[in-house]
């Protein structure tokens, strides 16, 4: 496996971490294409812990983002601070509310959000080296804070989130669940996934297209 992709996780579970299906589909497609990957996550406390059965937040439970991300990576996950852009050909960030709660505060701050500084530093390396960046589901909302203004992305057709993207200086493009938006100038590929998906097969189609395009862009 000559090509190597970094996958950045934000915990485990749609409501307080990385979306499990989106992450698994990303890793599956990378493996199917013979692309090597390594998972990373910040070694920080989660914003909060959500009971995924009741969808209610716990008032007394605490969890660590890196430790929870290890559930998704079968234990093989490294601290985000160890990610060096020059060791990888591309980076992909699956969605899930952990993106908006742990990697940033978008869930509470909206278009006034701030991004985790260590995350921003890591992504700046991929941006500066013009390496492909894949953002899935809610993750495209981070593009302007991570990479700069004027980047074309999609979260599907959610008016609230697309409005926030525009307010922050991004360019939102409406997109079906099974398709992708490619900003060739900035080397960014996005897909709505579970911003729109009602079935895992729908999410899979868009995510596979995203990974395929990332593969093409790596050359």
UniProtKB/TrEMBL annotation:
Any one GO molecular-function label of the UniProt entry: lyase activity
The reaction(s) catalysed by this protein are: glyoxal + H2O = glycolate + H(+)
Record keywords, A-Z = Lyase
Report the InterPro entries cross-referenced here: Class_I_gatase-like, ElbB
Can the keyword Repeat be found in this entry's annotation?
Answer: no
Q: From what superkingdom does this record's organism come?
A: Bacteria
**What Gene3D superfamilies does the record point to?**
3.40.50.880
Keyword Lyase applies = yes
For this protein, the record's SUPFAM superfamilies field holds: Class I glutamine amidotransferase-like
Give the function comment from the record. Answer: Displays glyoxalase activity, catalyzing the conversion of glyoxal to glycolate.
The entry sums up its family as follows: Belongs to the peptidase C56 family.
Q: What is this protein called?
A: Glyoxalase
Organism in which the protein naturally occurs = Vreelandella subterranea
List the lineage, top down: Bacteria, Pseudomonadati, Pseudomonadota, Gammaproteobacteria, Oceanospirillales
């Amino acid at each position: 496996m000559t090509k190597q992709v970094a996958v950045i996780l934000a915990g485990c579970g749609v409501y307080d971490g990385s979306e499990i299906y989106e992450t698994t589909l990303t890793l599956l497609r990378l493996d199917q294409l013979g692309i090597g990957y390594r998972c990373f996550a910040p070694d920080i406390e989660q914003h909060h812990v959500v009971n995924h059965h009741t969808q209610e937040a716990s008032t007394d439970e605490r969890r660590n983002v890196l430790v929870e991300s290890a559930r998704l990576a079968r234990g093989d996950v490294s601290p985000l601070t160890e990610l060096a852009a020059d060791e990888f050909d591309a980076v992909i960030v699956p969605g899930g509310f952990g993106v908006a709660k742990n990697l940033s505060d978008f869930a509470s701050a909206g278009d006034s959000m701030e991004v985790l500084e260590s995350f921003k530093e890591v992504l700046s390396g991929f941006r500066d080296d013009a390496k492909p960046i894949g953002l899935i589901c809610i993750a495209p909302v981070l593009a302007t804070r991570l990479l700069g203004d004027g980047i074309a992305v999609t979260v599907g057709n959610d008016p609230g989130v697309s409005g926030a993207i525009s307010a922050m200086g991004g360019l939102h493009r409406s997109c079906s669940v099974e398709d992708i938006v490619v900003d060739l100038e900035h080397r960014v590929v996005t897909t709505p996934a579970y911003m729109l998906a009602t079935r895992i097969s729908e999410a899979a189609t868009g995510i596979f297209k995203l990974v395929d395009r990332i593969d093409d862009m790596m050359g």
